Structures are given as structure tokens and as C-alpha cells.
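TEACHING EXERCISE
Course module: macromolecular assemblies
Task: Read the component lines below, then compare them to the predicted structure of the full complex.
Student: A.B.
Group: 4
Components provided:
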Amino acid sequence: GAVVSQHPSRVICKSGTSVKIECRSLDFQATTMFWYRQFPKQSLMLMATSNEGSKATYEQGVEKDKFLINHASLTLSTLTVTSAHPEDSSFYICSARPVNYGYTFGSGTRLTVV
Amino acid sequence: AQKITQTQPGMFVQEKEAVTLDCTYDTSDQSYGLFWYKQPSSGEMIFLIYQGSYDEQNATEGRYSLNFQKARKSANLVISASQLGDSAMYFCAMREGRHGGSQGNLIFGKGTKLSVKP
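Instructor-supplied answer key:
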């Protein structure tokens, strides 16, 4: 149980375009979803916390206008990278915390901006 | 200051031998949780083991055990009988507070790349 489905797993986009990443909780309701970014050979860094029905909380240094988060339902949170640039190329991974369970992660999205 | 410190960027271990991956943490909370995750090259985060700050016994999950030394603020992962499939990045992580501080998120260390040699 407690599965988070994330897609796409891999996306290549042109510089200046936008990319949407979806994370869906399959068998539980996720009122909170955590979005992490991981650069090659580095750790996971929290970007933002999305809360169902309210505004996301962004970590210091993360541009909220660039990384749009929407958590419109209890089972879906989306991260949209707007006007992507090559420096946004990274591995993005979401995580949720089902009640009485540890943290569960999506499978991650490898974004390449060319 | 780093909350989670993993001092070993890379480790090698011979197949079938045991290996210890170090992790120290920094928190002023009395209640916190410590996690270890494995990340293979595919990128997925695989949960290995959890230790609560009030747990008196060291956590064990199959070949994984956590050497929890609260006074020293260390939570080392021990993998026994290493297998080739254990080659991956290993991350130590902490959740502060009973529900994880203000947001409940995990804080990760920089990771240790484990390579198992045949």
C-alpha cells in the first residue's frame, strides 16, 4: 500500500517552454506533498511543500513563480517548471506521508532542458 | 549547520561482508525520527529502516540494522552479508519533532555511494 505515482519519468524540453510533473497518491489521501530536487551526485533538497486546498510553502531561494505547485485534490499534486532553462535540468521527486506510515516517494522525473 | 552529516562520500565492500555507513545528526528536539533510504541509479528512493528517538532498541530489517547511539547523535546503517545489488547511493534522513517540525518533511544527508565488489 501507500504508493505515489509520478510521471513523466523522463522529459526533454526546449528552453523557454513549461513542463508539468504530476504526483498522484494511489491508495491514500495526501493532504501534504513534498517536492524535492536532486542535482547529479547531490542530495535531495526540499523545494516546497504543497498543501491540499491552500498555497504551497516554498523553501528559501526557490522561485515560486518559476516552480508552480498545485494541489487541487487529496490525491494529486503537480509541479510546473515554467520557462525552463538548462540550469533547471535536474531530478525532481515528490514524497507524501500517509497516516501511520513512513514517507513514500514517487519514482522521480528526470528533466533535461535543451 | 548541517543537520545530517554523512562523512563517507564513497565506500567499497567485498561481497558477503558487512559494511557500516556513518550518519550523525543535529537536533534540539527530543522527539525525532531517523531514516535510511537506498537510491539505485534509476533514482527511486527505497525505504530501508526507521529509528524513533524514543525507541530503546536498535531497529533491524532483514540484513539492515541501525546502530543508534543517542548520546553521540549517530545513526549508522549496518548492512550484513553485502550483495552486488546493494551497490547504490544511501541517504540518511531525519524528521524533526513528533510530526516533523513546521512542515513534516525529511532532511537528507549528502549520501554515501556504496560499491560492492564481487
